[in-house]
Amino acid sequence: TPLRMTALDMIVTELRSSTSSMTAVPKPLKFLRPCFDSLKKAYGSISATTDESDLLVFRARLADVLAVLAMTMGKIEERESLKFKLMGLADYALLKERKVEHSVTDDNMGSWGHEFVRSLAGEIGQEYNARVNDGADPDEDSSFADILGMVDIIVPFHVSHNAESEAVDLLIEVQRLKRLLDIDTIDNTNYRRICLYLVKTADFMSDPDDLSEMMETALSLYRKKNEHFDALRVALRMGNDDIISELFEECEDDLIKKQMCLLLARHNMSYQYEDDDDDLNELIGNVNLSEQFLKVAQDLDVTEAKTPEDIYKSHLAETGGFSRRRDTGGAQVDSARANLASTFVNAFVNAGFGQDKLMTPDSEWLYKNKDHGMMSAAASLGMVLLWNVEEGLTQIDKFLYSA
User: How far is residue 14's CA from residue 74's CA, in Å, rounded to a whole number?
Assistant: First the structure.
């Protein structure tokens, strides 16, 4: 046994050094391919009820080696890599129970390289689905205790090695996404990527329960990291209005609270801040939206009203004018369709600025239209005066009583 153990240690050393960064098939795997069946026979020859500690350590060590070899040599449908790893973990657990000291740790999956861990994760998903199809209850951990123990090792490994998406995918496969909240390796450097992946992946969930679980997990992670604005964004997407008050109570940053109020305003939420803070309630009610919009427009120097001709740029065309028709013998005749188009263009290009060159100076443009064109021209004034409740209502009021 000491000689076999020494030889096995040499194989382990070579395999670990070659599989830590796998850019091609490592030479040790090529050389051991013909020996794969012999190694499996050697493993099977060791009694499952052996009481010898040295032999038990050897068998657990050999199971690790066979699990790595089965990654490329085993049959996919048999999931040999997972089978050998589970048997190795059972031996390690038995050694721990007997309090036998050995140099091998039972959670040494990461030492075999990322590709091995990824291969195991794929087989765990297949094994989970196979057990569910055989009648195991997905909500009971007892039927999946062995593979869930491996999941608790693999997920933190993925998270700590910038493979957050693979960690989330594995937890989704085994329907244990809530375990993500108990992982210690989630910190300020990776929780944003995890939450972003959860939120984006939720769009592809066909089961409403899975969708809700993913959004709730992202919400819990954001709250755990005191990212209340992002938590509110997720809560609004979930339609969970009851949690808004809790998020405001948890948030201690006044600037973040204002951002949260602006987000509520953007979603047209009729929420009343309980502390009777007028500033925050005004933000939620979009009271100062027009003033803020005009301030930004002033800073960008875009407050000057534009005309439809500025958009058409008809002076660059040969025909000139929106009607694409030039009457060389006299003045250009107004077209009802052209005037209607100009009304819409004028409304959208000057929306929210409170002034334009067609409707706000006087009502002359209104009477260049007929029927629905006149109605559209009156409505366009509302678009130009968008959000300006104090001055806008005064200018629109005269059209409300016109016959």
Answer: 20
Give whole-number Cα distances, 121 to 19, 37, 128, 201, 278, in Å: 17, 24, 11, 19, 53
Tell me the angle at which helices 53-73 and 114-133 cross, rounded to the nearest 10 degrees: 90
Separation of alpha carbons 239 and 134, rounded Å? 37
Contact in structure between 231 and 219 (CB atoms under 8 Å) = yes
Separation of alpha carbons 87 and 90, rounded Å = 5
Q: 65-79, 229-243, 316-330, 384-398 — which one is most confidently predicted on average? A: 229-243
- CA-based Rg of the chain, rounded to a whole angstrom? 35
- At 319 the three-state DSSP class reads coil
| Cα gap 54→217, rounded to integer Å | 45
- Which residues, other chains included, contact 352 with Cβ-Cβ below 8 Å and sequence gap of 6+? 290, 293, 294, 297, 384, 386, 387, 388
The alpha carbon of 244 is separated from its chain's Cα centroid by a whole number of angstroms, namely 21
Give pTM, 2 decimals: 0.75
- Given a contact cutoff of 8 angstroms between Cβ atoms, the answer to whether 339 and 382 are in contact is no
Query: Distance between CA atoms of 68 and 85, rounded to whole angstroms?
Result: 9
